Give the backbone structure.
Amino acid sequence: DAGVIQSPRHEVTEMGQEVTLRCKPISGHDYLFWYRQTMMRGLELLIYFNNNVPIDDSGMPEDRFSAKMPNASFSTLKIQPSEPRDSAVYFCASSFRGTYTGELFFGEGSRLTVL
Amino acid sequence: QKEVEQNSGPLSVPEGAIASLNCTYSDRVSQSFFWYRQYSGKSPELIMSIYSNGDKEDGRFTAQLNKASQYVSLLIRDSQPSDSATYLCAVHNAGNMLTFGGGTRLMVKP
């Protein structure tokens, strides 16, 4: 079975450009999470969806970040305009029935570098 | 204030030794606790879960939980070089969120 699929795997862009990260969750999973990982701050939850509906976006750093989930098989995380401090690895993860069991399935991540 | 705290390491142990990884958390109502392993350049993967006080064993891994002390630990017996990775402690909070600690980097030397 295919796991969580993220694209692009690597993105290098210049400050001020728009960045769009994409995620395809595991089929049948009803929760989708976007995390950001940096050396300084570790793995931080940005936003999560349940049945395509955003539930908690309190981790989104600021208005430059937005996320959508138009259907059960696709989500995007957009940064506009991007800044050097946005450089990080962005992980998408999905799960079935939430996080009580702790089993999140992570994609391979999108490594973003903003120059 | 971070909700889940771990020593960043690196924790260096010789092959065959016991590696002990520790984690403390601040939210007293947390009910479920997890250990994820993350190899360098890879994504985290779940290796252990624990829900009640005491020990839970799975092969060479033992998770320990003490809710009164708000303390979770992971013991790895007979450590192997392939165990070298960063170990992330995660705590389930209200609202279906997992909060991760910063991770402890483990190095097992042959």
Q: What stands out?
A: Chain B has no helices and eleven strands. Chain B touches chain A through 22 residues (CB under 8 Å). The mean pLDDT of chain B is 93. The two ends of chain B are 37 Å apart (CA to CA).
